[in-house]
């Protein structure tokens, strides 16, 4: 198109949220135990953010408490479209994991985002017509 030039920008985040680690079941030790603790802490913070957003009332949303929630801030009650895919296991031994994953997905679905198109109009540079 001719001047003024329009430029649309956006972000795309693809995040694989690892399941919470039950160290009694997995038998993690050493570095893996420390890593699974960090994963559980990030998921706990994510759950706190989702709960705070669903509670409304203008309270504090703890986005800054985790790198994960800072990364997902636009997707959690922000200005982005969000899609969540929840993997579940049909076996009885994974009942609690499946139940908690579906519960988290249901709570996340209640969050309202307000997406918009971000468009910048660029002035023509010298030599353009």
Automatic annotation (TrEMBL):
Main location: cytoplasm
Family matches, as InterPro entries: Kinesin-like_fam, Kinesin_motor_CS, Kinesin_motor_dom, Kinesin_motor_dom_sf, P-loop_NTPase
GO term, biological process aspect, one: system development
Keywords: ATP-binding, Cytoplasm, Cytoskeleton, Nucleotide-binding
Name of the molecule in the record: Kinesin motor domain-containing protein
Residue ranges constituting the Kinesin motor domain according to the UniProt record: 1-111
UniProt-recorded Gene Ontology molecular function terms: ATP binding
Annotated Gene Ontology cellular component terms: cytoskeleton
Family: Belongs to the TRAFAC class myosin-kinesin ATPase superfamily. Kinesin family.
Domain of life the protein comes from: Eukaryota
tRNA processing recorded as keyword: no
Subcellular location: Cytoplasm, Cytoskeleton
Secretion signal, residue range per the UniProt entry: none
Keyword Cytoplasm: yes
């Amino acid at each position: 198109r001719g001047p003024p030039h329009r430029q649309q920008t956006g972000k795309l985040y693809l995040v694989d949220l690892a399941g919470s680690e039950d160290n009694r079941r997995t038998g993690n030790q050493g570095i893996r135990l420390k890593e699974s603790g960090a994963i559980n802490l990030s998921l706990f913070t994510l759950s706190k953010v989702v709960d705070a957003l669903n509670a409304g009332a203008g309270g504090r949303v703890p986005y800054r408490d985790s790198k994960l929630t800072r990364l997902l801030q636009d997707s959690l009650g922000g200005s982005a479209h969000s899609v969540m895919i929840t993997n579940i296991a049909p076996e009885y031994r994974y009942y609690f994991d499946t139940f908690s994953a579906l519960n988290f997905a249901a709570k996340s679905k209640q969050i309202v985002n307000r997406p918009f198109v971000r468009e910048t109009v660029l002035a023509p540079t010298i030599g353009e017509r």
